[in-house]
Amino acid sequence: MQRAAYELAFRTLTYQELLEDIMTDSCFYLTRPVPDEQMSLVAVMLCDFQDRKFLPRERQGEEEIIQEVRDVENYLHRFKTKLAASLARCRIKHSLLSIECILPETVKKKQERSKSLPLYAWVNTLKSSLDEVQSVLKSAGLLQAKSIGQLEGQTFCQDPHCGDILVFPTQLKAQLYSTGLLSDHKLILQDKSCSLGPNAVCSLLPEDGDVLMVGSFSGLTVSHTASLIAGKHKSNSNNQPTVYVCVSDCTNSHRAELQLAVSTMGCKNVKLILEVFQSLDGGDKRLQKVRVILLTPKCSMSAVSNPVEFILQENGDMNLLQDLSQGSIAQSKLESLVAQQRKDIDHALKCECTTTCSLPKVLAVVYSTCSSYPEENVEVVNQALQQAKACSDQGGDPKQANFRLSPSTFSFSDCAEAVEAADPFFVLEPSEQSNGCFLAVLYREPEPEVKEAPQETIARANAKGILDKINCKPLTRKEHHGYTSRMKKAAHARTSQPHLSDSIQSKNQQTKDSNSAIVCGHPELTNMRQSSQGKTKARAMQALKNTVSSAFSFSKQERASSSSTSSCSNPENSAPAKSIAPVFNTTTTTPTTPHPASPPATPATPADRPRRAQQEVLKPALLVLPPVHFPNFFPSRQPSRTGFSPSLKSNRWKTPAQLASSSRSSGDLSKNAMGKSRPLF
């Protein structure tokens, strides 16, 4: 009865101008004076009277009798002839084939669409499943079609955009009630434009996120959102996402209806918020896990073909019926609606520029209307994005204003009335298959990941003293290879050092024995040899230290020093010998003689060679003292290659006492040489 009453009132508003002309032309005001407060009642009853072809209304049962209504009905019935004649004259005057022809073109189109609109119903997954509902429908004699265009007679099909919505021809409403699906709340009749928003929210919501609903909606829309989310996270029944509903603009009766609808549908994850949406901020503990906001603000509903049914089901604004009956919305009302929409979406994206973000953890905002005006759709969204960006440029946090338009979550393949897929907005134009709808998804862009270059990382570490101000320039491939080789050879030198010491000791022992044999029997050389041995020992120790240290040092001077060699004369081999230390320039004092002495053999200096890229550990070499030359007492004999040949003939120049003294000296020298022929290390 409520729906019939509002339908009659809306029809009266639609033909208001025609009804006023009929009452004026028939002189109804003059013959039957009616108080001004009852003129609205007269217009409504006259509309119903002409729809019934001016026949008396049939009374239904024991209906309540209202005296005022009975009096107006009697007046109209008595004046019905004049009223019918006035209607005929108006039709002739305006050349109307029917009274519908007097209506504006937009209103006529809506009336034609409303007669053929199919029934949309979503499956309540909290009480049933899609397969179960389809099975019940097929058992009731209904056949499943492939598309909405094939709906004829006893058929139904699945909606191309929302998988949980089934579509039926409008004449099957009574048969659906007979299946028990509607009475058991397993199948819910609701317009498709109200179901697109919940489906978009469900596709965007992460597992650990909640939903906040703001705007004008019914308990059916809240229940649909809650059921979709509960079905998506059915595996985690202990910690399901919560649907918070902002009901600050609802009346007490509307809140009671909403709560009753939610409990009837079996939803247990819905909580009401009594505060105004603009007063909510990120500090509210209830909203810490909110990740998606579903914003369905009050709109003009200009894209709805059956506004009365829609307003009654979705608790819309009844004051819009008068404007909708004329096919357009007054500019003042449209501006008022746009201003409220801007406040809601601005707060959803970002609060005023001087405040912080309302809900900083929100990932997406779904904005949905049933309007065909760009001022309420595209312009509102674009201005909100520009406002958010302007706030960030004025000193706000840019992380809270980086929302962007996300591509639609719905497919356009089966909808000819939809816009192109490249458009970021999802728009359904009003048609004979559905009402119009506008939907936009504003997705927060993730914070960009700052990738720091390696050189910047090293420079920042140097600035903090972490790397002790090392050079940021990396080693080349050749330098890295050389450094690795040197480290391996240095480690090998450390492990082979004991063998190097033994080799030097054995060769020094041989050298000392040979030199002792050379000077044996010559007293005048004993002191000179002892002093030379002392100097040689000290220099050999110093050379060994330099050799060991050179194995672990790679400076330029040490490499140059370690590469030098020395050579000396050898009785068996005159080739120069390598040295592991700088050349020993050991000098000895020779007695002056009137005869010129043979020139000493000078060590051969090797030619300079280019420095090798890889350094090698030098091998030990034999240390040979420079030769000592003595005067030749026999001019007829040439000195040997060693400079002196020990011959027994040299003793004939000595006396027995001198010979004995020389023998003792030789024995002492041999003993000293043997005693001192221990290793130098």
UniProtKB/TrEMBL annotation:
Pfam family for this entry, one = NSUN5_fdxn-like
Which residues participate directly in catalysis? 370 (nucleophile)
Where is the region Disordered?
Answer: 488-519, 553-613, 631-681
- GO BP, one example? methylation
Q: What Gene Ontology molecular function terms does this protein carry?
A: methyltransferase activity; RNA binding
Task: State where composition is biased (Pro residues).
Answer: 593-603
Per the record, the coiled-coil ranges are none
| Residues of the SAM-dependent MTase RsmB/NOP-type domain | 109-445
Query: Which residues are listed as membrane-spanning?
Result: none
Listed binding positions for S-adenosyl-L-methionine are 249
Q: Where is the signal peptide?
A: none
The protein depicted here goes by the name Methyltransferase NSUN7
The top of its lineage is: Eukaryota, Metazoa, Chordata, Craniata, Vertebrata
